[in-house]
Amino acid sequence: MQRWTALLLCLLLLTGLAACGEQTEPVKETEAFPTEVPIQWHAETLSYVVGELYDVCPRGNGYYLAADSGIYELDAQFNLSGEHLPDQTTLVAMEKDRLLYLGSDEAGNYAILDEAGGAAPIELGHGFFSTQLLPLGETLWLCDGFKLLRDGRELTLPREPGVLWHAAALVETGDGLSLVLTRTATDTLKPTGAWLVPVDDSTEALSEKDGTELPEPLWTAATYCNPASRCVCADGVLWRLENGTFSKFVELSSFGVNPSRLRRALITEDRVLCLEEERLTVLSESSNDISTTGSTERDDPSETSVVPAVPRTLTVGALWNQDYLCSEWIAYVNRTKPGCQLTCRVYETVEKLNLAILNHEVDLLALNDVSVLQNYGNQDLLYPVEDLCPELQSADALYQNMIDALRYKGDCLYLPLAMSPTVNILPKRYGFSPGEAASLAALGAGLEEVDPDTFSQSTKDGVLETQMLPQTLSNWIDPETGQLSFDSPDFIELLEFCDRYALTWEEVGAAGSGLTPEDNARHFTMGIPLQLSWYGLLTHNDLYALPDSGDVRLNLSSQVYLAVLNHTDRTTAEKLVNSLLFDEGWFSQLSRSQTAFQIYLNREWTEAVLKKETDRLDQLEQSYLESGFTDVPSLTAQRKLIQSYRELFQEKVCFLAPASDLIRVVLEEAQPYFQGEITAQEAARRIQNRVEIYLAERS
Amino acid sequence: MKRKLRKSKSHTFLFLLPSLLGVLLFFVLPFGMVIWYSLVNRPVNGDFVGLDNFKVLLGNKAFLLGAKNTGILLAVSVPLAVLLPLKLALWLERAIPMKSQLRTAFLSPMLVPIASVILVWRVLFHQNGTLNAYLGANTDWFHSTWSILMVLLLYLWKNIGYHTILFTAALAAIPRTYIDMANLDGAGRTRQFFTVKLPFLAPTIFFVVLMSLIASMKIFREVWLLTGSYPYESLYLLQHFMNNTFRTMDYQKLSAAALMLAVVMGALIAVLLAIERRLDRDTENE
To answer: B55-285: CATH homologous superfamily?
Structure first.
């Protein structure tokens, strides 16, 4: 009897121990809206070119849809039901069943007017270009995506070196008002956290120094907020406010919506409307059809396809945040490939990603740090892409030299989603031909003479990190032998070049037309290029050809590389890789969405990009000629550059993919030199020492 | 009788079962996995390669550098971490003023958060920092062969207090009879220490040596906070190698290094145990 009592006690104890383990509730995935409804365009509107879509809002039983060609009235089934109102240039907001315009009042001052032309009281929750106006009681709150103002007074946001804090959006939470506060690293422009911070009439500052203690960030990146619908798009998921807290509502890319390009998300009783630049996707639980509207063409109903009952879901692993190009690709695949569905999962650290790979939680990787992918390649975890796409081995459709440049230990293990050439050619007007400047000092002196503002916005470590190091790393590390030469005179000269011609952060802030370094980063994140040309040339912040004994080679870089883990289903992996390289629909999508000069491994696609650019130059030249200009040197230079690119794409290329750890080591040791604490020789010695260890570990 | 004994043994086993399961799950199985990883060429679907990983490791410059620096740190810090606290404890044993305040002061380094310590160390050992100003020198403490001294000082500062307290308690536990007898026999302080006190201190010395060995491994945390994942060569420890290979998913090298370290530590502890047993026997015989 005693024996059985003891046994029972032990079993109870074991059960108790097992039950003590942490149990987490499974994350609630989307329940209510698994599919989309088709949007039917009225037959008579086929000739419409709708153009870029800006906004959508409810109107009575239907909707208003604002595009750059005008405002359209849609009925509840999204048929065009009313007049097309062509003039929307002064439209500022669509909210609460009315349209509001920017106009002038009787006194001639700017005012917000309703459709009848009368002054409208400001009682909006959102929309006013990119600025929110939110009256709450007697207080008027204003948030423009960067600053937060209460009754015209700016509230202090946290200040931190190397970090940019944004007041992204305001949202009413039922208990009051909350601010979506986001944090971005200025060196990488990557989001590092998004908070929901309550604000009220007593809030003066949002800074830990002033006593506001920020809790753990709710998200990594909040890209959009619709206070009227009380939803926030963050980390690729639409979150909805319910009972005072935000909960996951819709994983957007599963339904072919690119969360990075979301302009408006409207949650109604039975639908979710997701507006992107060129697409309005309506999610509803009532239909099994999938189709979306394109902005410039009507979808052929015969192309709609039925979603199979259980599509195969693959997970794409990303580090730190989801790149917009990766989101674009995931959304495209989910829209167009019925047999496959992609979802993205973001990991905060490499260690967590490693664990996820070992547990087979991810199937594909979309990373911008190639060294991490190479680590996985060393462990034979990745499919050689040539096994999945035999066309990689033939020179016809793809650039063989680029593929060869991508190889790691003989195998092509990852592919760039899109590439940009990083300048290694001097524009003619600067008076140098490739290889003509005999030394970096001569180059720097020459650039300063030609254009004194060349380095006015460039910091020393910024120039080293973003321009000099990526382009020259292979000069200091021999990939074959692993030999290092950071302590060579050439590298010391490079450090001295950055120190001499670039500025400190304080100097940049003082010199650059009143802009602080944070402002520079802010302008970049707003998407307003600071005098950037189509190629990233001809700017104040770019450097040009380096003295390289006349060997002009083209450096390419990509913001994200895709790799396939070898436990992934091979058939699906083959389809995905082939679609990435040859699917014309994907190329059309890229062409519509690209905001910078990008090229592709596919020759035809790259040629199409170059032709598009040539056509653009032709149009520009035509307009200049019509205005009376007979010669525009910058256009001539750009034409010659296009021709040079065509030749260089066939020649020697290399991919700039320096490991972030390596770059960090170099920058850490260069910093004391830039601050005047040590000599360039000492900095070079330290860099050599530490990088030796880095490479020795990997040997 | 036999039946009772069998019954008792089975009850014992049952009550030990949860602990045994825990040890199996959290120690034996992971250790087994480490051994497996050290014998294959990939973490996933790896092929058995025997001792190849160990051969590669012994030829790896980073591993050898880390092992060398860790060995130097152990060889210097552990004896100092035993001798200095022992000396302090003997000093505290005498009738000195403010004895209890001094004991508290010795323990206070353990209370300071490590991030604060690192900040202070950075200021102290910066090339334009306090120490160089005091010494009138221009030594770059973070980038020279003397960098290990900085780590050693940090280690000793952090751990001396605790060891001193342990020795103080051990000294207080020595029966006064023996010390009085030694005094009567005319034994001097030094003779008393070696013939009377040291045998009684043996278990504590053994414990302090063990704690010092473990603590000298944990100093990696401070070094990492001071210098990052890839420090100057004189500060590169074995744990840096392991940390970085873990990050790069090179589990084969990591496991092989961990096993080699376990073997070395095991040998050291076995030697210590043997010495401790010998000293214990001597004490019991007395």
So the answer is: MetI-like (1.10.3720.10)
